[in-house]
Amino acid sequence: MVDFNADYEVMAYSVGDTKAGTKMGKLQLRNVEENSTLNCILWEETLNRLDPKLFRTGNVVKITNASFNEKFNNCLVNNMELIKEAALGIDEKTRDEHFKYILDVIESFKNEELKKFVKNVWLEHEDLIKVAPAAKMMHHNYLGGLIQHIFECLGFAECVFPKMHKKMNKDILFAACILHDIGKIFEYKIDFETGFVEYNEDFKKDWISHSQYGFSLCMANNQQQIAKMIAAHHGRADWGAMIDLGEKDLENYYYIVHHIDDLSAKFGKIYISDLETK
Question: Which one, of 273, 191, 235, lies nearest residue 9 by Cα?
């Protein structure tokens, strides 16, 4: 139901065409107090009347006129007002610091072949890596979201690695954390004015997913174990995993990046508002 007294945080927004040829907006909001999700639609007349910047990811808004459709379990929004404007994402200084930290991690690799491969990828795509979001909606869907996500994954890996009793090579684990989502620099695109995240249609013409891209990149560079960890990091086939962790007799290394990735996606700086928490 719609709570007209509640503050809502914008989680995701997109515009598409209806069968009648008009525009329709799809908006996902999060009730700031209850942490519940509200799925909304906006017809073309409303879209033409409202400032597109109102729908920036992370903005806090109030719904001032709307109706709830029980049949379709969504809210038809007719009007909203801005309560608090969000940043686009991580500031440039922090993105540069994260990039340098991760580069230092790569430089620490003992495996020279692996170091050269990962370093080349990291430096070749520096500009994209620093601004790419980590998702359209699920987590870290803001400017610099991907590099924040990788930074968090490395932090979790640093914590769990000493408990692995020599069952995992540190260089391989850290390289997999760095590269597991590298395809997202091409899979998504972000509008630097509005903060809107969209799928890159050109990427979708050649690749199934960012996981397929990362897997292929690692296989082509003789890094089969990392490729398999990337293939499994979504956990289940119906979540987009190329290797389902429900399969029997998988070696233990298949699981670790999935769990580290999941920790960041659930407990990291998932939302724009998390960036403001000191």
Answer: 273
Compute how many other C-beta atoms are within 10 angstroms of the C-beta atom of residue 258: 21
pLDDT band (50, 70, 90) for residue 277: low
Provide the 10 A C-beta neighbour count for residue 198: 14
pLDDT bin (cut points 50, 70, 90) of residue 191 is confident
Non-local (6+) Cβ contacts of 76 within 8 A are 40, 41, 42, 43, 66, 67, 68, 69
Q: At a CB cut-off of 8 Å and minimum separation 6, what does 255 contact?
A: 232, 245
User: For tokens 């397929």, what's the residue?
Assistant: 212
Separation of alpha carbons 227 and 194, rounded Å: 35
The residue type found at 96 is D
| The pLDDT of residue 71 | 76
Q: How far is CA 214 from the centre of its chain?
A: 15
Q: Taking 70 as the threshold, does the pLDDT of residue 203 lie above it?
A: yes
pTM, whole model, 2 decimals? 0.84
Contacts (Cβ under 8 Å, ≥6 apart) of 213 = 182, 183, 186, 187, 207
